[in-house]
Structure formats: structure tokens, C-alpha cells
């Protein structure tokens, strides 16, 4: 089905191989952003993805386009993971644990994006609202399902939990002995009945 851009122009949907290539680029960019920050050379992202730099620029003409796309891609991956984990995990609590583990990965990547996301560039303004709109309902569903199964205490607030996980992840600073994942594991274990 064709989409329509705001200006009323029809756009063709991307071919399956073009979508896969874009996903590969986004995953590579996220990995490079975690290790080298968002100012990493485009050639490093291209090398990680196994493509030329022209391919990246063809998909993402500016660095801001790439950063926004990485952020949205990761949010969408997390949003899709919640329901999938509920279907495939042994218990709702196991699904919650696995989703929070993926959320930790996202938060670590997001910290690499933090300086850019807090810049004056208006293209980044809607991203925080987008994050909340997409992920709070997913976390809420995971919490409510685990509580309904009697695995965790009822009445947990998804926003508070996500903020707590984010705070634990941010606490590492430059301390190599700080293990945010272990601390987040303790936080999630504390939800159990």
C-alpha cells in the first residue's frame, strides 16, 4: 500500500531488502554509538554494517537523521519485544526480566545519545514523548501480567520502574566496577512476592 507524505506526494513502500539493509545500518550505528559516541566517524558505522559510507548517506542524509532513526528503531524493537516475550517466555516474570534486560541495553545506547538529544536541534524534541507513548504501555502490560499471575506484587508503576532502571544505568559514570545490570537485576528481583 502506498503512503502519502504531508505534502500530498505518494511514496512507494521500501522493498524488503532495502528495509533489511536499513535495519542493519541502524543496528550497526547503535553499536558504534555505545562504544564511540554519536560523533563517531560514519566510516566506523559503515565498517560495522559491512557497507560503504555512500550507503549510509543514501539512507540517512544527515547525522541527525541517523540518530533519530536509531532511537526510533530501538524504541520500536523494545515495543515489539514485550508482547513477543509474553508469548515465548516460561512465565510472565521471565518475560519482564528479559524485557528489562533489553531496556538496559537501550538505556546504555540512549546515554550515548544524551548530549545530542538534549541539544537545541528541534528534530530531537518529540523523541522523549515518543519513547513514553510507546514503551510505558508495554512495561505496564508486562507488570500487570506478572502481577496477575501472582509472581510480583500488584500496583507497580511502569514509569517509576523505567525511571529507576534509567537511574541505575546512569550511575555508572566512568567507574568500571559499577555493574548496572546486576543492580537492575536486584531491583527487578525486589518486585517478586
UniProtKB/TrEMBL annotation:
Gene3D superfamilies: Tetracycline Repressor, domain 2. The keyword Transcription applies. InterPro entries: Homeodomain-like_sf (IPR009057), HTH-type_TetR-like_transc_reg (IPR050109), HTH_TetR (IPR001647), Tet_transcr_reg_TetR-rel_C_sf (IPR036271), TetR_SbtR-like_C (IPR049445). Residues 19-78 form the HTH tetR-type domain. Residues 41-60 bind DNA. Pfam families: TetR_C_43, TetR_N. Keywords: DNA-binding, Transcription, Transcription regulation. It comes from the Bacteria. This is TetR/AcrR family transcriptional regulator. It comes from Kribbella lupini. The lineage of its organism: Bacteria, Bacillati, Actinomycetota, Actinomycetes, Propionibacteriales.
